[in-house]
Amino acid sequence: MPVYVVFLTVSFLASIVGAICGIGGGVIIKPVLDAFGVLDVSAISFLSGCTVLAMSVYSVGRNKIAGTLSVDMSTGTPLAAGAAVGGVVGKYMFQGVRQMFENQNTVGAVQAACLMTLTLGTLIYTLKKSRIKTHYLKSVPACLAIGLFLGVLSSFLGIGGGPINLVILFYFFSMTTKVAAQNSLYIILFSQVTSLVVSVFTGTVPPVEWGILAGMVVCGVLGGITGRWFNKRMNDRMVDKLFMILMVMIIFINIYNIFYYA
Q1: In angstroms, rounded to a whole number, what is the distance separating the alpha carbons of residues 74 and 221?
Q2: What residue range is the signal peptide (predicted)?
């Protein structure tokens, strides 16, 4: 029971932050739950992905209904389409890496190392972004390629999206923090849907307790509701500060996980 409470609490709090910053929440859920070492890394990836999917479905759907969805469909749709394909590719990449190592802890170490590297790069970019010239891409092929890259990372790492989404949207599309957050959740939604569908139809859903899955999905939705409420009351500067604090925390958690699984 204490483990269940931890899983649900982490899912709820991570989904709040994920909805505020547009990072999905999986970038917090995955490394934190990995650190407890009570489930296989593939099970954690699946639970994290489902939680993030539930949160993103609510957040994107609610903003769409309310007419507050800040997604330019001319770029957002090809980004999402690329992410959908990337979700499939990333899932197969993860299965391939699992088969390479007999010890599944090694897979956890690989994921933690990749996530730490990406998070560190994201933090450095965020600290220096005011001095970095950004772009505004409109090319559909470029958007598809970028979406593919983000979808692969999202699915392979089991994080749903993560901070790299925001950096890409800042740099290539000159988005403000809150607009990037909404676009990131839109991309995450498509990558996670395809990743889940592939897992179901290929029979690669890892063994999980369905009670925990249902509880985490509910917490994902509740976190999305709460995070949306906070996001409406926060400006870009406040979101940036929260984002950077999280990056530091995630880096240290992943350093711990690398040594734990190695």
Answers
A1: 28
A2: none
